[in-house]
Amino acid sequence: MDDRKLRVKLLLTENRYLDLLPFRAGKGNAVRYLSYKWELPLENFITAGNSGNDIDMLKGKTKGIVVANYSPELETLKNNNSIYFATQELAKGVLEGIEYYTSEINALKN
User: Fold this and answer.
1) N or C: which end of the chain has fewer CB within 10 A?
2) Is 89 inside a domain boundary?
3) With DSSP H G I counted as helix, E B as strand and the rest as coil, what are the percentages for the chain, rounded to 5?
4) What residues have CB less than 8 Å from 40, skipping those under 6 apart?
5) CATH code at 97?
6) Can you say whether the dihedral through the CA atoms of 62, 63, 68, 72 is positive or negative?
7) Number of H helices, E strands in the chain
8) Is residue 2 assigned to a domain?
9) pLDDT digits (tens, 9 = 90+) for 6-20
10) pLDDT of 110
11) CA–CA distance, 66 with 72 (Å, rounded to integer)
12) Is residue 90 part of a domain?
């Protein structure tokens, strides 16, 4: 990559796959683009993931959900107050996280 002057992000997924992404690409950048395009604050977005290539999306200003079947590299996000770790896997974990955030919002309204 250096020989060809290519700028890339290297991500380890599931502790065994090496992902090479263009430097300016990624899920976090995609969410920030949508926030800009739709003129909505990042705090109004909920993101969900289960692997290392989701880290940049989950660590932003969004409300994050990590589903129960997550890969070990997401352990480092456990201390982040804006990331909910679901007890259920896959889509059920996403729905659990959405329920968590919507009930939190409803509690603030009352």
Assistant:
1) C
2) yes
3) 45, 20, 35
4) 34
5) 3.40.50.1000
6) positive
7) 3, 5
8) no
9) 888 887 777 778 878
10) 66
11) 11
12) yes
DSSP, res 20: E
Domain that includes residue 86, residue range: 8-109
- Between 108 and 93, where is the model more confident? 93
Contact 52, 60 (CB under 8 A): no
∠ CA 89-60-94, nearest 5°, is 20
Residue where the block lists tokens 């992404």 = 21
Q: Which long-range contacts (CB under 8 A, 24 or more apart) does 79-87 make?
A: 83/58, 83/59
Reported pTM: 0.82
| 3-state secondary structure at position 17 | strand
Mean pLDDT score of the chain:
90
Q: Give the number of domains in the chain.
A: 1
